[in-house]
Here is the input.
Amino acid sequence: MTLSLHNERAQVRDGWKSLFFILAAMACFVIVGVVGHSLPASVKPFAPSAILITVLGLAITYGATRLEGSRVADLGLRLDGRFLRESVLGVLAGAAMIGVSAAAVMLWADVRLSPMAGPTWAVELKLVATFLGGALFEELLFRGFAFQRALRGMGVWPATVLFGLIFCIAHLPGNLEVGPALLATAMANLFANGVLQTVLYLRTGSLALPIGLHFGWNLLQQSLGFGVSGISSHQAWFQVHFGQQPTWLSGGEFGLEASIFALVLQAALIVLLVATGRRALAARPASPVPSQGLSHATHNVA
Here is the structure.
């Protein structure tokens, strides 16, 4: 193992590229925090922080690819009809997963939902912008340039595990008081979600499905009144009432993504995607030209 910045071809090593991108992303959060804190109250309802984090995420991604001599489209951001279709499919998939998880906790974890007046359309649009900006930025970080350079340098599963762990650390509950059981379930869920999103990227070669799923998952979870990674909101369509069952069943204040039911669902989807990918690869006729690049990585994970 070498810590030198450049390889034998005088190019910056992929590991350093990945690290520099992560540091740049952390700087983006600092900038958004400082700017958001200084904005006047009359501007904050228009979700300027969500817009700024999206712009900064795209900017550092563009800058990283330009410095390397590659293109943003090569990262899975080719904005065409297929990208739009997969994005919509991802939103529906994320919403369906939350719907199934919500139904499970209502059936088996003594959770009830009572309707509320709900947010105004202006607030709802702000929530959409916030969750869309967050989904885009996080997927650019956890499945975009930094991950893909780690993938190239480390291999599929080491990079997948590493960024799954980073994803967990980035979503630690902070000041939310949770017991060890709920914390363990939440971290396992977050890790599984990171792996699931990565497998979706590797299977499609596009960030469309991960972005859509991330957005649909968070938006519906919040709309139903559940917390989103421990962040609760009073701007929801329902109020959640927790019964006497353990919080690792319902997810408690952390949200459905800390429920054992969501964990089982995600694990099942990961196994299904990997298994079907292997069968598809086994049934594919041998190519006279060896697979390279992303397709080769996809084959390894599938």
Observations:
- The beta strands are 111-115, 238-242.
- The first strand starts at residue 111 and ends at 115.
